[in-house]
């Protein structure tokens, strides 16, 4: 988790997650790029945020294990998550292969997402939108 007071971030290249769920064992499994109580942050640019979710999808309870009542797959991280933020803007970036959700805002005010490209294979469990 990051606490970033009043900033702008430019994503010009690629931000790439670790590719294996085992790489997340000592972390908070539900978070990857997590911003908490940030004000007036703009994330923009032509870059890519790649969650590398393929190995997560193979284990997902809502994927091929959908009917397994005893599924114990680890909680997949949200790729880009803003929590209790104000005045956040996300624009002009590509979000792809999110482990779970690509972009989430939780208890945020005055948040805006625009000119985004969201891409994952049709077979990924999080492509319901």
UniProtKB/TrEMBL annotation:
Gene3D superfamilies xref list: Single-stranded right-handed beta-helix, Pectin lyase-like (2.160.20.10)
Keywords for this protein: Cell wall, Cell wall biogenesis/degradation, Glycosidase, Hydrolase, Secreted
Entry keyword annotation includes Transport: no
Gene Ontology molecular function: any one: polygalacturonase activity
Spans traversing the lipid bilayer: none
InterPro entries given in the database record: Glyco_hydro_28 (IPR000743), Pectin_lyas_fold (IPR012334), Pectin_lyase_fold/virulence (IPR011050)
Subcellular location: Secreted, Cell wall
Name the UniProt record assigns to this protein: Polygalacturonase
Record family assignment: Belongs to the glycosyl hydrolase 28 family.
GO biological process: carbohydrate metabolic process; cell wall organization
Native species: Aegilops tauschii subsp. strangulata (Goatgrass)
